[in-house]
Amino acid sequence: MGCLISHLASKFAFFPPSPATYAVKKCDGGKLSAVSTAGSTPLPIGGDCNGSPSPSLDVLLLDTKRGNKIVAFYLRNPCARLTVLYSHGNAADLGQLFDLFVQLKANLRVNLMGYDYSGYGASTGKPSESNTYADIEAVYECLQTDYGVSQEDLILYGQSVGSGPTLHLAAKLPRLRGVVLHSAILSGLRVVCRVKFTFCCDIYKNEKKIRKVKCPVLVIHGTEDSVVNWFHGNGLWKVAKDPYEPLWVKGGGHCNLELYPDYIRHLCKFIQEMENITTATRLRKIRQNLHLNKKSKSCNKIAIKSSQLK
């Protein structure tokens, strides 16, 4: 029964575009270039091997601890103070998302790293929950070692199934700047079957993992999402430790929220506020939380003693 439940959840989770919408080529000097395969005339995405590579984009091939090689795009913005690590949904690859990445990089004034899961695009291997965790960990390690990005200057962004690896990593990074959950899921099975609890063999147990996330969490969800019902986003927002003002896009579906003006306005507001969070502010907030926890524990002890005296 457990294997059947896990299989059903996985069936929902992974629909890589076939064929992939881009290919990776090695240029003279070893630099990688990504070329779109959509349409009759291939168009360059990350520079052209016959011309000059794009100075604002790096195409990367990263090794994961599970033995796969995954493709990542790193887009630079010279005005950026923060970096966004974007984990995409279940039916897209980097070729389809490149234009969106360019727009987000410019409008939010951030550096942006996007990647394809194992089995997606030009990444090797097969998609699975475990592989997506290894994938995002490899990308984060690359951001640290190759680009000098610390968790204090990083915002994790998870769209749909991408909320799984996003919350997996966010739960491990206590000094992360922020998290964005876009059309996120409570768990894999709860998308397939509207149940009020999470099975032990379920995949992407986001409702449990978000409780470990210490940074501000912005939830964005469409009220008319027919793929991942709005109650998923609302449920995650309610249990977040540090919930940011959510964006419920009235009439928004699962794959069109970027078309609504409120989407980019609210996202810009969130990014700007995250930029203005200083180390002193973060430390003060942590101390306040610790004080509240100690006060709560003290009250509990008094209540226990009182009940014992009775």
UniProtKB/TrEMBL annotation:
Lineage: Eukaryota, Viridiplantae, Streptophyta, Embryophyta, Tracheophyta
Native species: Rhododendron simsii
Domain Serine aminopeptidase S33: 80-186
Protein name (database record): Serine aminopeptidase S33 domain-containing protein
